[in-house]
């Protein structure tokens, strides 16, 4: 019998009770709603708006309504730092959710740590929470974990020699470093190592170099945004007949749409239970949370959910749970931070979170699901 707390925010709301009073609990967010990371930040922002409305309709938190103060940083770290400072000093929020990208998360982190206010990042870079910073947490799996999940699958298939083409953005560069650092442990040799800039519109030269490297058995593309879709299209144009792996940085319908379903067919990547909601077993610990969020999001916006919106869902749920356990509508930041750190067995769309003083991610590798794109949709790899 599952003893985990079921996080589905729809279920959590009923426990928060009490009619809303006039005071408000302000939660801050700075996200890349627009710009190169807009495909990630837009569903994050939509998710926060939707869930705050749901929470308030159900009575708020500790009898108080939530107020979401949200800025669009466009994925620019300087903007993110400015908005984080504004959220703390002017808007007086109790915590910050955001940092769509690794770069913006690191910028926000510098403010959060200096101002000593809880911050929950939505980005993948391991350096956000390693080494642990007192006030900084995050909801997505790390890029190192993504490498490990991919290499596990390669190892199982006898793949030992690969090519890699990575974005030079913060996420792509970080994941490349992490993959190189763990490859040997899985018996993987990176025999071709190419890169591309965020604004590049054609990766044919780099992929041609990879195609011409002898003995490759697969190709891995650490990256996010439009770059991996261009890589996928160029990959098919060049007729490269090797398995192609992408990162969790593109685990959403937008990647399939940008790549073209026929080009993305067969691509594998680590993702979350959210992308295969209807394929989860009835006793899957995450099913209730995943389906509740999926149905609410699709019902409101009439578009598919993405992994990235799920990161925002989990961040808000973690914060609401901590606020509720702390018991103060105007919490001391240190007390709220400690409440977040005490989170245990909280079921989200991304995984089941249990933080500690040494672990501000709270997920292990089992939270990842290895997925394959088939017929324009997601299928779990058995």
From TrEMBL:
Presence of the UniProt keyword rRNA processing in the record: no
Q: Which PANTHER family match?
A: BLR7848 PROTEIN (PTHR30483:SF38), LEUCINE-SPECIFIC-BINDING PROTEIN (PTHR30483)
Q: Which GO terms describe its biological process?
A: amino acid transport
| Family from the record | Belongs to the leucine-binding protein family.
Signal sequence interval, chain numbering: 1-23
Key words of the record? Amino-acid transport, Signal, Transport
Tell me one Pfam family matched here.
Answer: Peripla_BP_6
Q: Which SUPFAM superfamilies does its entry note?
A: Periplasmic binding protein-like I
Designated name of the protein? ABC transporter substrate-binding protein
Organism (species): Pararhodobacter aggregans
Q: Which residues form the Leucine-binding protein domain?
A: 24-362
List the InterPro entries hit by this protein, alphabetically: BCAA_transport (IPR051010), Leu-bd (IPR028081), Leu_Ile_Val-bd (IPR000709), Peripla_BP_I (IPR028082)
